[in-house]
């Protein structure tokens, strides 16, 4: 799906705007991801970002000494760290070649296009999670919403089995494409903090 490469930079720009609206007092706010507050969700992004980048570059994954929960990556400079990581992911996955062929995410071999769609989903879905946590809205381009929905539907059963997605949330008949994508990933489009 190398045509999705063009969706990365606009999604990342929206994501970065959401990040800049998060204040110190927001870090303990709950998010639509039941197991994460804002700090834990930012930690999740900082932990997995290098893995996604390595998969896009088709290089070895980073060596890590701890698991995600123990990593403690959200320090005083968290905004700078996430913005730099976002820029690196845009640099890698904004290029069509990152989406071609096979790659590995850790020890799992998979089509590179799946990893690219994961990155797009990180920006769009976790962008929404963070925006909702701090009482803001998010602007998702129709093409990005369609790509995220297609990806979520394709890997939904496996993602739910791996506890990456929650149980599917039924949305109304008149739901937008993005609301359907949220529901497919176990998010309630009507979630409020």
UniProtKB/TrEMBL annotation:
Instruction: Identify the Gene3D superfamilies for this entry.
Output: dinb family like domain
Name used for this protein in its record: Uncharacterized protein (TIGR03086 family)
One GO molecular function term of this record is: metal ion binding
Cross-referenced InterPro entries: CHP03086, DinB/YfiT-like, Maleyloyr_isom, MDMPI_metal-binding
Q: Where is the Mycothiol-dependent maleylpyruvate isomerase metal-binding domain?
A: 9-131
Q: SUPFAM superfamilies annotated for this entry? A: DinB/YfiT-like putative metalloenzymes (SSF109854)
Q: Which domain of life is it from?
A: Bacteria
């Amino acid at each position: 799906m190398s045509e999705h490469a063009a969706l990365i930079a606009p999604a990342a720009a929206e994501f970065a705007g959401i990040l800049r609206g998060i204040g110190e007092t927001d870090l303990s706010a709950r998010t639509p991801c039941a197991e994460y507050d804002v700090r834990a969700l930012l930690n999740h992004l900082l932990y997995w970002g290098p893995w996604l980048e390595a998969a896009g570059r088709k290089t070895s994954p980073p060596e890590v000494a701890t698991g995600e929960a123990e990593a403690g990556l959200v320090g005083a400079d968290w905004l700078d760290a996430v913005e730099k990581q976002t820029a690196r992911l845009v640099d890698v996955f904004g290029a069509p070649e990152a989406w071609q062929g096979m790659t590995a995410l850790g020890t799992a071999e998979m089509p590179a296009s799946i990893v690219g769609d994961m990155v797009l989903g990180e920006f769009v879905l976790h962008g929404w999670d963070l925006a909702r946590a701090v009482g803001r809205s998010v602007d998702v381009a129709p093409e990005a919403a369609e790509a995220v929905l297609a990806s979520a539907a394709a890997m939904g059963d496996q993602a739910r089995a791996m506890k990456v997605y929650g149980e599917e949330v039924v949305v109304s008949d008149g739901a937008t494409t993005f609301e359907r994508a949220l529901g497919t990933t176990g998010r309630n489009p009507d979630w409020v903090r």
